[in-house]
Amino acid sequence: MTTWAFLTVVALATAALAQQQEYPTNTKYENFNTDSIIANERILLGYYKCVMDKGPCTKDGKNFKRVLPLTITTACSHCSPKQKTVVRRLLLGIRAKSEARFMEMLDKYDPGRLNRPALFTFLANGN
């Protein structure tokens, strides 16, 4: 269950940021049901494996994987307010499911740990 939650959060956060930067008017992920993703172990694990290069990717998984590095390194600074809410809920859900997988994801996409303080501040207060 931890793997699924982690993967889902990461993927959704990344997708939200990418959609905001590339398509400012695209609201595809603004009303995403994060709770259903976090609760579904199978889906969450699939996304996790995708973003961690441990399994195949769906179309959404590929999109999430593409934008995840920027989402993590900017602490979702380019996200709309609604996207920030979605990304924050997903990342917190992933972290709650598995701290180890959450940290593994951060190590992959922010290996120098340069952006962790900003990311953890965003997770703590949404800003």
What do these coordinates show?
72% of the residues lie in helices and 0% in strands. It is mostly helical and 127 residues long. It has a single domain (2-125), classed as Insect odorant-binding protein A10/Ejaculatory bulb-specific protein 3 (Antennal chemosensory protein a6). The longest helix is centred in the N-terminal third of the chain and has 21 residues, at 2-22. It starts with a helix and ends with a helix. Mean pLDDT is 79; it is low at 4-8 and 17-25.
The radius of gyration over CA amounts to 13 Å
Report the helical percentage. over 70%
Q: CATH superfamily, called what?
A: Insect odorant-binding protein A10/Ejaculatory bulb-specific protein 3
> From the 3D coordinates, which CATH architecture would you assign?
Orthogonal Bundle
Query: Based on DSSP secondary structure assignment, what is the total number of beta strands?
Result: 0
- In terms of DSSP E residues, the strand content is under 5%
Straight-line distance between termini: 28 Å
SSE ordering: HHHHHHH
| Number of separate helices | 7
> Which CATH first-tier class would you pick?
Mainly Alpha
Low-confidence stretches: 4-8, 17-25
Average predicted local confidence, pLDDT: 79
Largest sheet: none
Overall, the morphology is: globular
Identify the notable features of this structure and list them briefly:
127 residues; mainly alpha; Antennal chemosensory protein a6; globular
